[in-house]
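Your task
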Amino acid sequence: MKMTKTIALATIATLALTACGGSGGSGGGTRDSIRAVGSSTVFPFAKAVSESFARANPEMNSPLIESTGSGGGIKLFCSGVGADKPDMANASRRMKPSEFESCLENGVTDVVELQVGLDGIAFASAKGGITMNLTPKIVYEALAASPYGGEQTAKNWSDVDASLPNEPIFVYGPPSTSGTRDALKELVLEAGCDTNPEMKALKEADKDKHTQVCTEVRSDGAYVDQGEQDNLIVQKIGNSPKSIGVFGFSYLEENADKVTGLPMNGVDPTYANISDFSYPGARPLYVYVKKAHVGVIPGIEGFLAEWVKSWKKDGPLAEIGLVASPDDVMAANEKAATELTTITAEDLAK
């Protein structure tokens, strides 16, 4: 019954999309430009590809790129098929199985997944500002709402580790809707939490409790949510030399004259260290494409071809901070972009 409903929704939505004809805005009509929503980290890369596509195709409208956060973008993407729905979602983490299920329930049955490159979660301070060698354990104990299930009492960095500066813990970072926040949780906070054997055991016994204890961020002012504008975090730490910012590596590269990356486990956030995953905060970046919109909303295939040209090691995106995927991964994703290979729930569970 559920599958029948899903197929019916997809058929109706696709027919509606195809039947609109003409040009115009969103809503009941169709569109004559591509619309992509999602990650603030992927935004500058998608914007650069959009501008390159527009230059190469002057007869077409430039794709509209919106920074909504990964979670918000995927929610919009999965809300249905039609000219009033986005064609693509940019994400700084992989789509969750539960999100894919939402796509299916709303008739978005054919989804193409592309890994467009790599990024890193950079911890940084202002030039001449506070410096320290971080570890996932240090970051967890400093930022967790309830470290290891106990009370959060750390006020200064030195309360966490005596070797650290005797300065207040003050971190500007991404909001809960951001893929950067998700990656912070998974790659750093959870890794730090699981250095405690009791927490590793809790993961087996009570996964929900483990997630709460290991990834919930303190809300007493030590961590300040700066919304989906990573450039604002750069500005904030520039004006506050005792603070630390958390954002995508590309923003560190772009603002190297203003901020300095802080090492994690003694490894600096650099292109080379992210590309070989020796830096603990390295992560892949994704673009999701609604196959039902290809051939209906003009330009999607050409836009994907522009992504493929741009994401190479010597391509224009490397100049603004994107770290190229390993060669085999890049080749597989070029094939997916060309052949519009769709994913399944099983793919996302791997």
Observations:
- The longest helix spans residues 2-19.
- The domain at 120-282 is CATH 3.40.190.10 (D-Maltodextrin-Binding Protein; domain 2).
- The radius of gyration is 21 Å.
